[in-house]
Amino acid sequence: MWDSATILMLVEGIGATLQMTLLSTLMAYALGLPMGIALVVTAKGGLKPSPFIYKALDIVANIVRSVPFLILLILVIPLTKIIVGKSYGSTATIVPLTIAAAPFIARLVESSLQEVDKGVLEAAQSMGASTGMIVRKVLLVEARTSLIVGATIATGTILGYSAMAGVVGGGGLGDIAIRYGYYRYETDIMLVSVIVLVALVQILQYIGMKLSKRLDRRITG
Amino acid sequence: MDAIIRIKDLGKTFTGKENNKDNQVEALRNINLEIHKGNIYGIIGMSGAGKSTLVRCLNFLERPTSGTVYIEGMDLSTMKDSVLRQTRTQISMIFQHFNLLMQRTVVDNICFPMYITGYSKKDARRRALELLEIVDLTEKAEAYPAQLSGGQKQRVAIARALATNPKILLCDEATSALDPTTTKAILKLLKEINETYGITIVIITHEMTVVQEICSHVAIIEKGELAESGTVEEVFTNPHTDAAKRLVFQTAQGTLQMKGKRCIRIVFNEISSFEPVISNMVLECKAPANILLADTRNINGIAHGQMILQLPEEEHLANKMIHYLKERKLTVEEVDDYVG
């Protein structure tokens, strides 16, 4: 069974999985990062408290996160068709992945930014810094270690979700594992796919943690 | 001369979640105070007195619920946000916990307020290095705050505060996290800054020693109200409110226990401190007096001191001693509520 066609399929699967994961993560950050910042800025005691905007974002984040991913995958099929033109394949999977991950990322960003010492924000305000400046130069910089840890967690989670998309023909390693392992009882191919997935998560985690440590200036040395 | 900071009928009430009356805390009430250019103004009070809220009202980090603050005659409460931010660049602040950017080097920390006011990177860096020389920390330019001691961090914070040439420097318990030796060094630096650049300094503290060390004026805040204010000399020599007395006696707190005998407080001025008054009094009256507290110090170059004496139980001897001290032009007052 280890003919060149199978190996090629697995290699392509890795490529598709990485492509789905990285593109979805990027796009989910494009939505989730501003949303997380907005949650922190508009919260009670934030830089520009606005109970209405905060509540609205809070509710949206909770609703999307409470829908199981498998259901969301099916729910957004019409939207996926409009955006991508088809509802299967690895490119199509990016749409539900992005939608599912954005609120999750918003929460990760929110908790990272909340860790920033309120005193430092107060100091920046006392210097006459505007809210935008405080967000860009203080919040995001001071929280960068925690943000990178968050991004590592987010990427790992999205990678796991991308495998789930295999159920509806999403492409990538998850798709291979389900097609061969579940529908055709070719356990060995399924196992190899799973091992590759595990390895990918391990590598991502390792890189993320290394990077966040390297960028942290709170540790002396 | 017009006041550089004028606090007018200022009040601040914090309201709890439900907006109901029970949930309100009145932190400050009807504060009126004028601070003049070049003053080092101490605002002292016990914790919870409202002094930190007061200093945050001076740059509107905390918006007062009534009254207002004028900075050089300009009313902060009517300013647009952008004008208020502009004004804040003239009012620097340092904090108890330094509040430095932990992910940036010392130089970058000092450059930060200059970026806000539009300095170029090159100019900001050059000025930052100058400032580091003033606070005597040149060798730490490229260090990160985590690598510095508390005193060094506060020096960086002071350099950062001076970066935009402010007219006012607010210090919120700036020495409370430091040991006594470091505290002295930081206070000395603040005094130098005040003398060299004429920056008006407002110091929030709960320690009388800080006020005595460098302040020219002092205001005492108790339970959200201004109890007393004036020059340090006036308030220290002749405190009339209970709040002021408690603070002046602060040095002896917890060390003495009174047994209900008559006690008096004597205040020395620069003349009498050269004369051995107490010894002479004891010799003259031929009766012992118990010294419960003796404390002399240097306030802005003039020797000041106070003593608390426990008088003999015999009425006539006690009266004789009081009479003797009054004759020597000393301020004598009975302190029946002095519980050390």
CATH architecture of the largest domain in chain B: 3-Layer(aba) Sandwich
* Overall average pLDDT of chain A: 91
Domains counted in the coordinates of chain B: how many? Answer: 2
The count of strands of chain B amounts to: 14
Question: CATH topology of the largest domain in chain B, anyone?
Answer: Rossmann fold
Cα distance, first to last residue of chain A? 53 Å
Number of helices of chain A: 10
CATH topology of chain A: MetI-like fold
Series of H and E elements of chain B: EEEHEEHEHHHEHEHEEHHEHEEHE
Task: Give structural notes.
- The complex is a heterodimer of chains A (221) and B (340).
- Chain A has 10 helices and no strands.
- With 221 residues, chain A is mainly α.
- Chain A has a single domain (4-215), classed as MetI-like (MetI-like fold, Orthogonal Bundle), CATH 1.10.3720.10.
- Mean pLDDT of chain B is 86; it is low at 252-260.
- Chain B contains 11 helices and 14 strands.
- In chain B, the strands form 3 sheets. A 6-stranded mixed sheet of chain B has the order 6-7-8-3-9-10, with helices on both faces. In chain B, strands 2-1-4-5 form a 4-stranded antiparallel sheet, covered by helices on one side.
- Chain B has 340 residues and is α/β, with parallel strands linked by helices.
- Chain B has 2 domains: 5-239, Rossmann fold, CATH 3.40.50; 254-334, 2-Layer Sandwich (Alpha-Beta Plaits), CATH 3.30.70.
- Chain A binds chain B through residues 117, 119-120, 122-130, 133, 137-138, 141-142, 144-145, 215-220, and chain B through 59, 61, 85-89, 91-93, 95, 97, 99-105, 112-113, 115-117, 144, 146-147, 164, 170.
